[in-house]
TrEMBL record:
GO biological process: L-histidine biosynthetic process
UniProt name for this protein: Histidinol dehydrogenase
Sequence positions that bind Zn(2+): Q259, H262, D361, H420
Species of origin: [Clostridium] polysaccharolyticum
Active site: E327 (proton acceptor), H328 (proton acceptor)
Gene Ontology terms, MF aspect: histidinol dehydrogenase activity; NAD binding; zinc ion binding
Function: Catalyzes the sequential NAD-dependent oxidations of L-histidinol to L-histidinaldehyde and then to L-histidine.
Catalytic activity: L-histidinol + 2 NAD(+) + H2O = L-histidine + 2 NADH + 3 H(+)
Cofactor annotation comment: Binds 1 zinc ion per subunit.
Cofactor(s) needed for function: Zn(2+)
Gene: hisD
Top-level class of the enzyme under EC nomenclature: oxidoreductase
Binding site for NAD(+): Y129, Q191, N214
Length: 429
């Protein structure tokens, strides 16, 4: 890996390079996505079936688009029992963590006759998109469905692309069934997002769409936002490790590669105060690349978006980490807890040498759907909050309104909204 001394100029160049990976920079595909969305909106099922044949080579019809109970039973028979058990253990951890995020309605009253409050309501219908093809991630199935189920969403619908035989990955089906999905449809790509956003004869319209996907899925979600809600426009995966001389270079190298293997556009960055550690981590990375699969993907990722950055002290490391605002941040230092308190911008923070990033991906419980491309500066991980909405509650008696009604009339009049003022004044004529 390249070792770079972190100057102001180097930091600016790195930030500019990382931001090139944003889905917002792929405008050349927007017209294609726009056409697919319009086609599905107009022709509904017919367009969905045509695009599924074109892109996935599968013959999908109204009769077989929905996954049957028999197909789910078949999936259980094909998945190793030990993996089913691991999925259930992970599911329990994820559910326990998200249960602590639940919000409840509240109401405050006063003797003067006022009641103010907040009514929390789960979304009615949510669509979860799950990628297919080369990337099959049952862990993402759990992470997207569990918070919706914990929030109390009435109907959770999943779409995922089929293979050429019209089959869905057994691992995906088992994870979905365990997590509590009610309906699963065999459709992927931008056409799946369109079907969930607008509804077709077979696929129900939903209120919100969540889940990862390729650039066409990301752009489709961006285009339908406002017609329905979405979770986020996710970019390629990224990891940033802050380490000092106490870190184990073999562990750090392994963790950097755990994200580099996702995608040629994934980013893996080490920020360290130790030149010796920097050199050892680089050597360990070279050693791992000789024995791990997905070598070509990792090499391309590191070549384009991999850095080992040397800083003079941990204060400078924190400053750089906050500017990069990484999806995953590991702190492997003598006192990681103290450093963690200075971090403002990160999707998920992992503390200590035994809290490696894949622990969060699969098992610990916190959600692994995280903000990318610097959006951790203003976005949070997927949570139960994403599947609820809030209504304000206001109730005043005449006795409570009377002493303040002239104030309201004055305020409305100052804005030249005489009908507003009148609405209050008529009650005290």
């Amino acid at each position: 890996m390249r070792i770079v001394e972190l100057t102001k100029e180097a930091k600016e160049n790195i930030l500019e390079n990382l931001l090139k990976r944003s889905p917002n920079n792929y405008g050349q595909y927007e017209e294609t996505v726009k056409d697919i969305l319009a086609d599905v909106k107009e022709k509904k099922d017919k367009a969905v079936f045509e695009y599924t044949k074109k892109f996935d080579k599968a013959d999908i019809t109204a009769q077989n688009i929905r996954v049957t109970e028999e197909e789910i039973e078949e999936a259980y028979a094909l998945v190793d029992d030990s993996l089913v058990e691991v999925i259930r253990k992970a599911l329990a951890n994820i559910r326990d963590y998200h249960m602590k995020q639940k919000q409840y309605s509240w109401f405050d009253t006063t003797p003067q006759g006022t009641m103010l409050g907040q009514k929390v309501t789960p979304l009615e219908k949510v669509g979860v998109y799950v990628p297919g093809g080369k990337a099959v991630y049952p862990s993402s199935v759990l992470m997207n469905i569990v918070p919706a189920a914990v929030a109390g969403v009435d109907k959770i619908v999943m779409t995922t692309p089929p293979d050429a035989e019209g089959k869905v990955s057994p691992n995906t089906l088992v994870a979905a069934k365990e997590a509590g999905v009610q309906e699963i449809y065999k459709v992927g790509g931008a056409q799946a997002i369109a079907a969930l956003a607008y509804g077709t004869e077979s696929v129900p319209k939903v209120d919100k769409i969540v889940g990862p996907g390729n650039i066409f899925v990301a752009l489709a979600k961006k285009a339908v936002y406002g017609h329905v809600s979405i979770d986020s426009i996710a970019g390629p995966s990224e990891i940033l490790v802050i380490a000092d001389e106490t870190a184990n270079p073999r562990f750090v190298a392994a963790d950097l590669l755990s994200q580099a293997e996702h995608d040629e556009m994934a980013s893996a960055i080490l920020i360290t105060t130790s030149k010796e550690l920097a050199k050892k981590v680089s050597d360990e990375v070279d050693g791992f690349l000789k024995v791990l699969s997905r070598k070509e993907i990792m090499e391309k990722s590191l070549e384009n978006y991999g850095y080992i950055l040397l800083v003079k002290d941990l204060e400078e490391a924190v400053e750089a980490a906050n500017e990069i605002a990484s999806e995953h941040l590991e702190i492997v230092t003598k006192d990681p807890y103290n450093l963690m308190m200075k971090i403002r911008n990160a999707g998920a923070i992992f503390l200590g040498e035994y809290s490696s990033e894949p622990l969060g991906d699969y098992f610990a419980g916190p959600n692994h759907v995280l903000p990318t491309n610097g959006t951790a500066k203003f976005f949070s991980p997927l949570s139960v909050d994403d599947f609820i909405k809030k209504s304000s509650i206001i109730s005043y008696s005449r006795e409570a309104l009377e002493p303040v009604h002239k104030d309201i009339v004055q305020f409305a009049t100052s804005e030249k909204l005489t009908a507003h003022a009148n609405s209050i004044a008529v009650r005290f004529e």
